[in-house]
Design goal:
This protein is mainly α. The chain has 5 helices and no strands. The protein is elongated.
């Protein structure tokens, strides 16, 4: 046969208690992510549509330059941009270095992300550098998770 498949023997399941912190950090991350989408981005979209309608104007959500909509999109966009690097770094570190450390750092990362919308504001006459208070700790955590995992691999 051109393709053949032989089932492999069942593998041992991971012990969830070993990865409890990392699992909880993953859940926390997605709670923050969906909060940003549903409570910030979606709420802003409907609030602005209502305001524009009262003024007799049409609100085009995708071409809007309204500062509140731009800020809401930036909040979700930044979270999404960092999702892959963060989750990959956290889980690789959990698998090969320390699930506890990965989980605790993941919780700190998720908490820092919660500050992003507040630090960003509505993108009107604000110092956008304030978001560094939420992004720089995140970049540092991702760097630590990846570098320590890489070090572990190189010295194994």
């Amino acid at each position: 046969p051109l393709f053949s498949w032989t089932p492999s023997p069942p593998k041992k399941m991971l012990n969830v208690s070993e990865y409890k912190e990392t699992v909880l950090a993953t859940v926390a991350y997605f709670l923050v992510y969906y909060y940003f989408i549903l409570a910030i981005q979606r709420k802003t979209k409907y609030r602005l549509a209502k305001e524009f309608k009262k003024q007799g104007k049409e609100f085009d959500r995708y071409y809007s330059t309204h500062p509140a909509m731009l800020a809401a999109d930036r909040v979700v966009g930044n979270m999404h941009e960092q999702m892959g690097p963060f989750l990959a770094a956290m889980w690789v570190h959990a698998a090969f270095v320390s699930p506890k450390v990965a989980g605790y750092l993941g919780l700190v990362y998720s908490a820092a992300r919660c500050c992003y919308p507040w630090l960003l504001g509505e993108l009107k006459d604000v110092n956008v550098k304030r978001v560094y208070g939420a992004t720089l700790p995140g970049y540092g955590i991702i760097a630590y998770l990846l570098l320590s995992t890489g070090y572990k691999a190189l010295t194994a």
